[in-house]
Write a structure and sequence with these properties.
2 helices; about 0% strand; mainly alpha; elongated
Amino acid sequence: MAADEKAQAKGEQIEGKAKKVVGGAVDNESLKAKGQAEESKGDLREAKEKAKDAIKPK
């Protein structure tokens, strides 16, 4: 399950970054904002997974 979450986080980060770049290139503030939000969502998901890994008993 954790690997799925990590992969989803990376996917959200990549997709968000792409939307942000395209939005900037075509001067579309809405698309740029959506990209930033999606990228941030991926960052938060990744941070959550790293925290779970840090507290997981070894």
